[in-house]
Amino acid sequence: MSTAYDLTGAGAADGGATAVAGATSATSATSVAGATVVAGAAGAGVAAVAGVATDWAAADPYSAALRTGRGPLFLRRADGWLLPLEVERWCARADPADLAILDRCEGAVLDVGCGPGRLVAELAGRGRTVLGIDVSEAAVAHTLALGGPALRRSVFDPLPGEGRWGTVLLMDGNVGIGGDPLALLRRAAALLVPGGLLIAETAPVDVDERAEVEVVDLTDPRGTGPAFPWARLGTPALLRRAGREDWRAAGQWTAGGRRFVALRSRSARSSAEPPKSTAVISSQWARKPSAERPVTDR
């Protein structure tokens, strides 16, 4: 793994060298730019910051789906409206749309809400400096099993390398984390180097909403997790908010029926074109709201 980026000692949680997520007899360890990252079956506590709920961690239907790699799984609003979650795609290898995103990544990469870790594993396999974070114990365990470094953390917790990440990823609907897109954009800016790159996946329609949702498995009467705040943003809504937060648009595109936006934090280079030095790998799965069209509760 590349050691070109010193991401150690970046936050109170690091102690300058070690970030620990969990403390059990069965742990896995990996290295992120020289810092040891240890994760076990019982993750570290995840703080609720800036109104962000961490109930993904306690959403049993979600954890069960990640362990089996299968749905069906949905986000359900209080009015019964359903958004399907693409568990099978999340748990598979990175697909061509994912690989094109990874080709655009610059420097050290932080995958926020990494889910089962398909993107983290792919980047680690390329020798890139990468870290996945997720509030779900099952997601972190899955990522580690794929060989990708991961921590059980909220994006609003202290993180390794704050202010030194070259790219932050918000894939699979993770722009909705916490139901407060402005707070999430501000946090992403604090994590990135000046002029750093944020790549976010947006909803396939022009939507701008915040709601309380719960994870549900409609095949299991007991398969309902606790309610938590979430947001859905289409590309126009994300660009409007980003403009108010001093980000500048660096690109937008559609691939595989999914939509993406690249944003630059204060200052820097001109576009999110794939770096010339990055090899394109042809081929690689998931956790969070999909870009598929929502369906009505039956």
Q: Which descriptors would you attach to this protein?
A:
7 helices, seven-stranded mixed β-sheet, 298 residues
Write up this protein.
This protein has 298 residues and is of the alpha/beta class. Helix content is 20%, strand content 28%. The protein is built from 7 helices and 14 strands. The strands form 3 sheets. Strands 8-7-6-9-10-14-13 form a 7-stranded mixed beta sheet, sandwiched between helices. Strands 5-4-11-12 form a 4-stranded antiparallel beta sheet. Strand 7 (130-134), helix 5 and strand 8 (150-152) form a beta-alpha-beta unit. Helix 1 packs parallel to helix 5 (137-145). The radius of gyration is 17 Å and the shape is globular. The protein starts with 17 loop residues before the first strand and ends in a 34-residue tail after the last strand.
Beta fraction: 25-35%
Main sheet: which strands, in order across? 8-7-6-9-10-14-13
Mean pLDDT: 77
Major β-sheet profile: 7 strands, mixed
Share of helix, binned: 10-25%
Q: State the end-to-end distance.
A: 48 Å
What general outline do the C-alpha atoms trace?
globular
How many strand elements?
14
What structural class do helix, strand and pairing data support?
Answer: alpha/beta
Series of secondary-structure elements, N-terminal to C-terminal: EEEHEEHHEHEHEEHEEEHEE
Count helical runs: 7
Rg on CA atoms, Å: 17 Å
Layout: helices, strands, pairs:
Elements: E1 18-21, E2 27-32, E3 35-40, H1 60-68, E4 74-77, E5 82-84, H2 87-90, H3 96-104, E6 109-112, H4 118-125, E7 130-134, H5 137-145, E8 150-152, E9 165-170, H6 181-191, E10 192-202, E11 208-216, E12 228-233, H7 235-244, E13 248-255, E14 258-264
Parallel strand pairs: 1-3, 6-7, 6-9, 7-8, 9-10
Antiparallel strand pairs: 2-3, 4-5, 4-11, 10-14, 11-12, 13-14
